[in-house]
Amino acid sequence: MASTQTVFTNNRPSKPIATIIKAGLIAGTLDIVTALIMFYMKTHKDPMIVFKYIASAAFGKAAYSGASFIVAGIVFHYIIAFSFTILYFFLYPRIKFMHNYPVLAGLTYGICVWLIMNLLVLPLTQLPPITFNLQSAITGTIVLMLAIGLPVSLIVHNYFSRNKRMIENDVV
Questions:
Q1: Other beta carbons less than 10 A from residue 24's beta carbon
Q2: What are the φ/ψ torsions at residue 65 (nearest 5 degrees)?
Q3: How confident is the model at residue 168 (pLDDT cuts 50, 70, 90)?
Q4: 3-class secondary structure for the chain?
Q5: pLDDT, tens digit, for every residue of 61-73?
Q6: What global pTM score does this model have?
Q7: Are 148 and 81 contacting, i.e. CB atoms less than 8 angstroms apart?
Q8: Which parts of the chain span the membrane according to its record (predicted)?
Q9: What is the per-residue pLDDT across 26-38, written as a single tens digit (0 to 9) for each?
């Protein structure tokens, strides 16, 4: 009888690009769905405004003028989600804490994502400066911990656990 691992992997190492795509899509989707729901619950406005807001980081106020900017917002959102996924994927084999404590590493990574976005990325965009609000910061951090950090960490941990020789040989 074949082991579960054999059934799922066919004794071949899985490909890193498939893992990155899977993790990026899951994390990006969890994050944006949460943002859309929270926006609607708070404002009772069309949640597609969220995508226009994301696009306005690059296009300024013009992003609120047409539906095509919704697509731009979606694309930008997933580019960011995939960027953080790729970064985690390449850090993982180099930082032992990440493979020893995947849940804690993922939650910590979510905090790092919030810090990077709010302290480095957003100030470089066309978005108006955001006044710091502790409750919003805590909520945003928790969302990123659970929607980005944790799923990316668990998916990447699972990938490298199945492909241990990649860590042992530092092949990424």
A1: 25
A2: -95, -15
A3: low
A4: CCCHHHHHHCCCCCCHHHHHHHHHHHHHHHHHHHHHHHHHHHHCCCCCHHHHHHHHHHHHHHHHCCCHHHHHHHHHHHHHHHHHHHHHHHHHHHCHHHHHCHHHHHHHHHHHHHHHHHHHHHHHCCCCCCCCCHHHHHHHHHHHHHHHHHHHHHHHHHHHHHCHHHHHCCCC
A5: 999 998 999 999 9
A6: 0.87
A7: yes
A8: 20-41, 70-91, 103-122, 134-156
A9: 999 999 999 999 9
Contact predicate 102/160, CB 8 Å: no
Task: Give the pLDDT mean for 35-44.
Answer: 97
Confidence (pLDDT) at 7: 34
Note whether 61 and 119 are within 8 A (CB).
no
Helices 16-43 and 49-59 sit at what angle, rounded to 10 degrees? 110
d(CA 172, CA 169): 9
**How much is the average pLDDT of 90-111?**
97
